[in-house]
C-alpha cells in the first residue's frame, strides 16, 4: 500500500498534473478532493471528463466515471469484486476504492488515452432489432459498421507507418548514391557523343534514330488508344448486361403480376384514351376550327375605321341590353322544375370540367415523364462520353465491395511482403557495408605489405589495367553492334519509304481529281446559297408582318373575351343580389312573425340590441374592476411574498435532507470498512 501511494504521488507531481503532494498531504485528502483528483486524471485521458464535480450530482459523477472505466476495461480488485460496493465507494470517495483506480490509471496513461480516443469511434451503437427491419435504417447501420472497419484498418496502417519509418541516414545514403550514378551517366553520355561525332553521316543517323523514337511513341499512343477502346467496349458490355438484367426483372415482374391487375390497368388506359379520342380532342379541334374561321374572317375583311368600331360598340351595347331584358323575363317566369334541371346541369358541368382538368393533368404528367426519361438518357450518354461510369445497382455494388475487400487483403499481404523485403534489404546493406569495411582494411594491409617489399602501387596498377582492358573490349563490341544495327536500320527505312511511295502514287492521282471536283461543287454551292438567302429574307419579312397582324388580332379577341366574361360575372352577381332583395322584402312584408324573424333587418336589429346590453354589462364590470384594483394588487403582492417564503423553506428542507442522506452513506461506508 505504501509503494502504491508513493507511485501515485510521484506521478501526480509530474507533468501534466504538477500537484506538489507528499505522502502526508495526499493521505489527508478528503473524499470530495479525491473524487475531483480522479476526475482530473480521467479528464487527462479523455478531455470530455475534465469537469468540476461540484457542478453535478453525486449519482451523475459516479455514472460518468463508471462508464469511462468500463470503456477502459478496468476490473476492481478481488476485495471489491462486488459492483454495488465498488459503486458505493466511488460515490462516497473511499480511499480503498480511489487509490487502486488512480494507481491503475497512472501506470498506463498513454495506452488508456489511445483507448479512449478509439472508443469515441469504435464503441458500437446498439440498434434495436425492430428498427433494423426498416431498409433505410439497415443501410445506415451497414454503412456505420463499414466505416468502423475502415477506421480500424487506417489506424493500424498509421501505427505501422510510425513503427516502420526509414531513418534519415538511409535516405542520405540513397541520395548520395543517386548523385554519384547521375554523374557517371553524364560522363558516359559525353563520351558517347565524342565517339559518335567521329562516325561518318552521324547527323543522318541521328535523324533516323529520332524518327524511330517518334514511331515508337506513336506505337505507344496507338496501344493506349487500343486499350481505351477495349475499356469502352467493356463499359458497353457492362451496360448491355445491366440492360439484360433489367429486362429479366421486368419480365419477372410481368410474370409475377396477376391478370386481373393487368386487365384493370389496360381498361383504365383504354378509357383514358377513348375519352381523349371521343370527347377531348374533338372538342379542342372544334374550338380551334371556330377560332381559325373567325380569324380568317377577320383577316379577309378590310381594315376598320374608328366609325366602324363605334358602330360595333353600339351594337354590342344593344345586344347586351336585349340579353338583360331576356334574363329579367326568365327570372319572372321562373319555375321550380327548371331550378332542379339547372342544378343538375350545373353539377354535370362541374364534373365535366373536373374531368377535363384531370385529363389535362394526366397528359401533362405523361409528357413530363417522357421528357425526364429523355433527359436521363441524355445525361447517361454525356457521362459515357466524358468517361464516367453509370450508377451501379445493388448487386453490382456488392460485387464491387467484395472485390475491393479481396484487393485490400491482397494489398495488405503485398505490403507485408514489401516490409519484409525492406528489412532484408537493410540487412543486406549492412552486410555490404561490413564487407566493404573489411575490403578497405585488407587493401590497407596489402598496401602496407607492398611498401615493406618496395613495390607500392602494384595491386592498384594491375586493377586499373584490367579495368581499362575490359572497358575497351566492351566498347569495341558495342561500337561494332551499333554500326551493324544502324546500317540495317537505314536499309529497312529506305525500303519502307520506297514501298510507301509506290502505294501512295494512285491515291495522289485520285486526290487531285477529287480536289478539282470539290472546287466546282463549292462554287455551285455558294451561288445556290446566295439565291436561298435572298429568298429566305423576303419570306421572313412577309412572315414577320403577318405575325404582327395576327398578334394584334389575338390580343383584341382576348380583350373582347375578357370583357364578355366580366359582364357575365357582374350579371350573375346582380341576379343573386336581386334574388336576396326579393326574399328579404317578402320576409319583411309577410304577416307571419316566424317568417319576419328570418329577415335580415330583424336579425341585425336583434344583434344590435344584444351588443348594446353586452356593452352595458362590460362597462359595469369595468367600474367594479377599477374600484377593486388597488386592494387586489396589495393582495397579489402579499401572495408573491408568501410564495417566496415557502420556496426558501422548501430549498432549506431539501438541503437538510441531502446532507442527511450523504451522512447516512458515509456512516454506512464506515461500517463496511469496519466490517472488512
TrEMBL record:
Gene Ontology cellular-component terms for this entry are: ciliary basal body; intraciliary transport particle B
Localization per Swiss-Prot or TrEMBL? Cytoplasm, Cytoskeleton, Cilium basal body
- IFT81 calponin homology domain location is 3-126
Note one Pfam family from the annotation: IFT81_CH
Q: Single Gene Ontology BP term?
A: spermatogenesis
Keywords in alphabetical order, please: Acetylation, Cell projection, Cilium, Cilium biogenesis/degradation, Coiled coil, Cytoplasm, Cytoskeleton, Differentiation, Phosphoprotein, Spermatogenesis
- Per its record, what are the GO molecular function terms? tubulin binding
* Coiled-coil residues: 137-253, 309-382, 483-563
What PANTHER family does the record tag this protein with? Answer: INTRAFLAGELLAR TRANSPORT PROTEIN 81 HOMOLOG (PTHR15614)
State its role: Component of the intraflagellar transport (IFT) complex B: together with IFT74, forms a tubulin-binding module that specifically mediates transport of tubulin within the cilium. Binds tubulin via its CH (calponin-homology)-like region. Required for ciliogenesis. Required for proper regulation of SHH signaling. Plays an important role during spermatogenesis by modulating the assembly and elongation of the sperm flagella.
Family to which this protein belongs: Belongs to the IFT81 family.
What's the protein name? Intraflagellar transport protein 81 homolog
Amino acid at each position: 500500500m505504501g509503494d502504491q501511494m508513493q507511485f501515485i504521488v510521484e506521478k501526480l507531481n509530474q507533468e501534466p498534473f504538477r500537484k506538489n503532494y507528499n505522502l502526508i498531504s495526499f493521505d489527508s485528502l478528503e473524499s470530495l478532493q479525491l473524487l475531483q483528483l480522479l476526475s482530473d486524471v480521467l479528464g487527462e485521458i479523455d478531455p470530455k471528463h475534465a469537469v468540476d464535480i461540484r457542478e453535478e450530482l453525486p449519482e451523475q459523477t459516479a455514472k460518468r466515471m463508471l462508464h469511462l472505466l468500463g470503456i477502459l476495461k478496468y476490473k476492481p480488485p478481488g476485495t471489491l469484486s462486488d459492483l454495488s460496493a465498488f459503486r458505493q465507494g466511488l460515490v462516497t470517495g473511499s480511499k480503498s476504492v480511489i487509490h487502486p483506480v488512480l494507481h491503475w490509471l497512472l501506470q498506463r496513461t498513454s495506452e488508456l488515452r489511445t483507448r479512449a480516443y478509439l472508443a469515441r469511434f469504435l464503441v458500437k451503437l446498439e440498434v434495436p432489432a425492430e428498427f433494423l427491419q426498416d431498409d433505410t435504417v439497415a443501410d445506415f447501420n451497414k454503412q456505420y459498421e463499414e466505416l468502423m472497419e475502415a477506421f480500424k484498418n487506417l489506424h493500424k496502417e498509421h501505427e505501422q507507418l510510425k513503427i516502420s519509418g526509414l531513418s534519415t541516414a538511409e535516405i542520405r545514403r540513397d541520395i548520395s548514391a543517386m548523385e554519384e550514378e547521375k554523374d557517371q551517366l553524364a560522363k558516359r553520355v559525353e563520351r558517347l557523343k565524342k565517339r559518335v561525332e567521329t562516325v561518318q553521316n552521324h547527323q543522318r543517323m541521328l535523324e533516323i534514330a529520332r524518327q524511330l523514337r517518334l514511331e515508337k511513341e506513336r506505337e505507344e499512343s496507338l496501344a493506349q488508344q487500343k486499350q481505351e477502346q477495349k475499356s469502352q467496349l467493356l463499359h458497353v458490355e457492362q451496360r448491355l448486361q445491366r440492360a439484360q438484367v433489367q429486362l429479366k426483372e421486368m419480365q419477372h415482374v410481368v410474370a409475377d403480376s396477376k391478370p386481373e391487375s393487368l386487365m384493370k390497368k389496360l381498361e383504365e388506359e383504354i378509357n383514358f384514351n377513348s375519352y381523349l379520342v371521343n370527347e377531348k380532342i374533338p372538342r379542342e379541334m372544334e374550338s380551334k376550327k371556330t377560332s381559325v374561321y373567325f380569324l380568317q374572317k377577320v383577316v379577309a375583311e378590310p381594315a376598320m375605321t374608328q366609325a366602324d368600331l363605334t358602330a360595333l360598340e353600339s351594337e354590342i351595347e344593344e345586344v347586351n341590353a336585349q340579353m338583360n331584358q331576356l334574363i329579367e323575363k326568365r327570372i319572372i317566369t321562373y319555375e321550380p322544375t327548371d331550378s332542379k334541371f339547372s342544378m343538375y346541369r350545373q353539377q354535370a358541368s362541374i364534373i365535366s370540367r373536373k374531368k377535363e382538368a384531370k385529363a389535362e393533368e394526366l397528359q401533362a404528367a405523361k409528357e413530363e415523364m417522357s421528357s425526364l426519361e429523355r433527359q436521363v438518357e441524355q445525361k447517361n450518354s454525356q457521362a459515357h462520353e466524358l468517361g464516367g461510369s453509370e450508377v451501379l445497382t445493388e448487386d453490382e455494388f456488392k460485387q464491387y465491395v467484395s472485390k475491393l475487400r479481396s484487393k485490400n487483403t491482397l494489398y495488405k499481404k503485398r505490403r507485408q511482403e514489401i516490409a519484409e523485403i525492406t528489412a532484408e534489404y537493410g540487412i543486406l546493406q549492412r552486410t555490404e557495408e561490413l564487407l566493404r569495411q573489411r575490403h578497405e582494411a585488407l587493401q590497407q594491409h596489402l598496401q602496407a605489405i607492398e611498401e615493406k617489399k618496395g613495390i607500392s602501387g602494384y595491386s592498384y596498377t594491375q586493377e586499373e589495367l584490367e579495368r581499362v582492358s575490359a572497358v575497351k573490349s566492351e566498347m569495341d563490341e558495342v561500337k561494332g553492334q551499333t554500326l551493324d544495327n544502324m546500317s540495317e536500320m537505314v536499309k529497312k527505312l529506305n525500303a519502307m519509304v520506297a514501298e510507301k511511295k509506290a502505294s501512295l502514287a494512285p491515291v495522289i492521282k485520285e486526290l487531285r481529281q477529287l480536289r478539282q471536283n470539290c472546287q466546282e461543287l463549292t462554287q455551285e454551292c455558294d451561288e445556290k446559297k446566295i439565291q436561298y438567302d435572298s429568298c429566305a429574307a423576303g419570306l421572313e419579312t412577309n412572315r414577320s408582318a403577318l405575325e404582327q397582324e395576327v398578334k394584334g388580332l389575338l390580343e383584341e379577341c382576348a380583350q373582347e373575351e375578357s370583357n364578355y366574361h366580366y359582364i357575365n360575372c357582374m350579371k350573375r352577381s346582380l341576379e343573386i343580389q336581386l334574388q336576396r332583395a326579393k326574399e328579404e322584402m317578402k320576409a319583411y312584408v309577410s304577416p307571419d312573425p316566424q317568417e319576419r324573424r328570418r329577415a335580415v333587418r330583424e336579425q341585425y336589429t336583434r344583434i344590435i340590441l344584444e351588443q348594446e346590453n353586452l356593452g352595458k354589462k362590460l362597462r359595469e364590470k369595468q367600474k367594479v374592476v377599477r374600484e377593486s384594483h388597488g386592494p387586489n394588487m396589495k393582495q397579489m403582492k402579499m401572495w408573491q411574498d408568501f410564495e417566496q417564503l415557502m420556496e426558501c423553506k422548501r430549498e432549506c428542507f431539501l438541503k437538510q435532507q441531502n446532507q442527511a442522506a450523504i451522512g447516512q452513506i458515509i456512516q454506512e461506508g464506515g461500517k463496511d470498512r469496519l466490517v472488512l
